[in-house]
């Protein structure tokens, strides 16, 4: 503040060259500004960021917000606007919203989110709507939406999920049993080896007979 020969103390009822405003006019708020080691009083229509207006019979004052990460507050313990990157929720500021609440980005507020119930038991293992005929299938479990979110733009958590499972019955009862391809190959190789062995044995017997 520049006081000069004629001190400028806007809104003051009393003013000091060294300390600025000491008392303010009615309806204005007294704010004690600090600059390094120096401090001086000002009379303001509204309190600066991080402060709220406290009205008293003696004199209205700007009181500091006591809420962490609060930019402006309604009272000592109720924040109306949080600092950048923080969400407002019931007068407090949070980096992330509490459980059961979802962040509303456009207002940086926490609103009632989507509530879901408990997971059901895993369902029957199946594949292509069949519970047999395959080695592997999928089993699914679900949960219900207990409470819809306050805003349609807020998504609900997943209410169904599936996982890979091994079927209890690989072959369907009464169905035609088919040997797996790998087993066929093994049997075929074994058969060829047996035929070759029998052929070699026949040649050996014939040669041995001729030599006699």
TrEMBL record:
Gene3D superfamilies: Hormone Receptor, Insulin-like Growth Factor Receptor 1, Chain A, domain 2 (2.10.220.10), Thrombospondin type-1 (TSP1) repeat (2.20.100.10). Residues 173-212 are annotated as: Disordered. GO terms for biological process: Wnt signaling pathway. Residues 9-110 form the R-spondin Fu-CRD domain. One of its GO terms (molecular function) is heparin binding. Residues 176-191 have a biased composition (Basic residues). One of its GO terms (cellular component) is extracellular region. Belongs to the R-spondin family. This is R-spondin-2. The gene is Rspo2.
């Amino acid at each position: 503040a520049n006081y000069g020969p004629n001190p400028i103390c806007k809104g003051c009822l009393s003013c000091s060259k060294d300390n600025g405003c000491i008392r303010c006019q009615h309806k204005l708020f007294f704010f004690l500004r600090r600059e390094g080691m120096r401090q001086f009083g000002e009379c303001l229509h509204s309190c600066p960021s991080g402060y709220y207006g406290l009205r008293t019979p003696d004199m209205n004052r700007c009181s500091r917000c006591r809420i962490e990460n609060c930019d402006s507050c309604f009272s000592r313990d109720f924040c109306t606007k949080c600092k950048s990157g923080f969400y407002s929720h019931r007068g407090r500021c949070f980096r992330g919203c509490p459980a059961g609440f979802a962040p509303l980005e456009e207002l940086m507020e926490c609103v009632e989110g989507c509530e879901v119930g408990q997971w059901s038991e895993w369902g029957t293992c199946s594949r292509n709507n069949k519970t047999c005929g395959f080695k592997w299938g999928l089993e699914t479990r679900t949960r219900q939406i207990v409470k819809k979110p306050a805003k349609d733009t807020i998504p609900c958590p997943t209410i169904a999920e599936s996982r890979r499972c091994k079927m209890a019955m690989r072959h369907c009862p009464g169905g035609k049993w088919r040997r797996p391809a790998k087993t066929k190959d093994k049997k075929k190789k074994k058969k060829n080896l047996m035929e070759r062995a029998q052929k070699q044995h026949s040649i050996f017997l014939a040669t041995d007979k001729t030599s006699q």
